[in-house]
User: Fold this.
Amino acid sequence: MTNSTGTAMPSWQNPRFGGKIRAALWLETEVGVGGVFTKTALRQAFPDDAQIDRRLRELRSYDWQIDTHREDPSLKQQEQKYVARGAEIWLPGQAAAVKQKASLTATQRAKVWSDDSFLCRTCGIGVGEKYPDGSSGTSQLAIARRKVALPNGSTEEQLVTVCGRCVASHDNEVGLADLLAEAALLSPIEKGTLTSWIDAGQRTRGTLEQVWGVFQTLPAESRAAIRAALQE
Assistant:
């Protein structure tokens, strides 16, 4: 397994690392994103660290998402699920460079998921759905902080729903100012169409697209008849 830099990930059993870093590496190499583990398994892996439960919880301050039965009712009392990787705190200087953020409450997570219609805003998959490529397992939703470039020139982090597969791309910056500028150039008809898609939460096919779709299936003689009719 490798880091985001492409280098080999260090061993979670390396005694040079503290409990927090070792817990992060253990999640990555032994549990894996989407994997469920118990407190007993965690303590058995770190028998000499009486504070390993606390070290694991501290990872949430670095954007690691580890759900309990409070966030995921399908989990049992002693179970936890590793949902998404956060900062790679085992890299030199990474932990110090990351601004620690307060963990989201269950209520805050639920609001973000609800606002995003329980869909990954990167690939569009819903919670618990199978991926189109036929791979085993189902999607798990996480919360990411996405950088958004605002029209006033500043950048802020906004919460967005992503799935376990797309969480690695959550740090891509979104240019809201550029998108607003492009939207302003749309014709009134295009703005109306886009507004209807936004309100419906999906792109709907209008009459023009439907006619075009059927037109493409017509024989040459019929296509010519349509073409001629449009000129009348």
In short: The mean pLDDT is 84. The two ends are 65 Å apart (CA to CA). The longest strand covers residues 141-149.
